[in-house]
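User: I've been trying to design a sequence by hand for this structure and keep getting stuck. Would you show me what you'd pick, starting by listing the structure so we're on the same page?

Assistant: Good idea, let's start from the same input. This is the structure you sent:
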């Protein structure tokens, strides 16, 4: 279907205020009603199959005939309606611990696919119906517009107060280049282990192994965990308790972001010519094999993806992701099973190689990153 949510390259957005005319206001209200109807259809489908929320494409099949019979807008407008409804339903389920209800559509806001708008001079031309357009002036005086507009316009968000125009930058293909070195990062609950190697001359060479403690992040998490327990125990008023807990979560999130911003900025600055390699940990929090309550607590508050995304957008080189399976239990050289004669030592039963147990995973990530680089360059 239309414009995909994820585009290759980095996204940059220009925002400016506006006052919609009557035709645009009517369009926003119609799309608000369409999103509400799509949410109801997606909710009914999810109730029949609680394990799965329908995809935007599946939802479009159920909504398209209703949309075309009710509205005379260009048919592409049904695509962002379905994507918005699915995204809202998934977000509600995630933020309410798996509970599924129909979220309320409060605001007048609509995403417009790239097929339905065009930049003409200093104006945006938006197609409402075939051969019927709405024109919006662009705030070209925005200090970033000249730089971002060299990229491809990918998505437009219109509300009753603001316009958000998104561009995809970083070249025509949107792909960053591989660096001259690799920095493999193993993110643990209390440390980040780095193993660095060069790739010059076609022969990889190990350069440095480093461990960076996450004392500040752990301290922040423990402090705010104690504060939340105290609030839940001593504040009796439910509304006041909920408000205080929201404030506490916001402060914790901001402080952890600040600590990770400094760590990621430091690593990118120290390795400007390197590509970072991470484990693809998507879905690790949904692992049902984890039975320990303590481990589950650590997993739920582990900010691994936040750190990865910060490094990815700050680095000028491509960031790689490898499979995490077996990085601590398999030999990175021969793939044999590891045993641990002592706490600090890991030994391969097959080839007999010895490894530092604390830094084994980052070395395994490095080896997989090197193999991935060789595959990408073929």
């Amino acid at each position: 279907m239309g414009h995909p949510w994820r585009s290759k390259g980095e996204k940059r957005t220009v925002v400016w205020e506006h006052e919609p005319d009557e035709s645009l206001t009517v369009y926003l209200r119609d799309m608000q009603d369409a999103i509400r109807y799509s949410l109801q259809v997606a909710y009914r489908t999810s109730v029949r199959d609680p394990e799965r929320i329908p995809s935007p494409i599946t939802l479009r099949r159920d909504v398209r005939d209703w949309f075309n019979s009710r509205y005379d807008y260009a048919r592409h407008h049904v695509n962002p309606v379905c994507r918005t409804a699915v995204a809202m339903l998934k977000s509600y389920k995630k933020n309410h611990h798996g509970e599924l209800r129909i979220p309320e559509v409060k605001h007048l806001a609509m995403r417009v696919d790239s097929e339905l708008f065009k930049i003409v001079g200093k104006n945006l031309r938006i197609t409402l119906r075939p051969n019927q357009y709405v024109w919006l002036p662009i705030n070209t005086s925005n200090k970033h517009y000249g730089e971002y507009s060299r990229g491809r316009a990918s998505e437009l968000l219109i509300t009753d107060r603001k316009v958000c125009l998104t561009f995809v930058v970083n070249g025509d293909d949107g792909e960053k280049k591989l660096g001259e070195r690799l920095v493999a990062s193993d993110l643990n609950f209390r440390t980040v282990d780095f193993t660095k190697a060069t790739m010059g001359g076609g022969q990889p060479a190990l350069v440095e192994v480093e461990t960076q403690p996450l004392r500040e992040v752990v301290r922040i998490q423990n402090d705010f965990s104690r504060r939340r327990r105290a609030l839940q125990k001593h504040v009796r008023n439910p509304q006041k308790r909920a408000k205080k807990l929201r404030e506490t979560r916001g402060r914790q999130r901001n402080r952890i972001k600040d600590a990770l911003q400094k760590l990621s900025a430091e690593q990118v600055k120290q390795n400007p010519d390197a590509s970072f390699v991470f484990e693809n940990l998507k879905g690790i929090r949904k692992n049902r094999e984890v039975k320990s309550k303590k481990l589950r607590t650590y997993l739920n508050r582990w900010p691994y993806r936040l750190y990865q995304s910060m490094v990815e957008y700050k680095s000028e080189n491509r960031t790689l992701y490898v499979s995490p399976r077996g990085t601590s239990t398999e030999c990175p050289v021969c793939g044999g099973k590891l045993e641990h004669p002592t706490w600090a030592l890991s030994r391969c039963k097959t080839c007999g190689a010895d490894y530092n147990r604390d830094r084994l995973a980052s070395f395994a990530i490095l080896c997989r990153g090197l193999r991935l680089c060789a595959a990408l360059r073929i």
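That's my pick for every position. To get oriented when you compare it with your attempt: The radius of gyration is 25 Å. Residues 10-169 form one domain.
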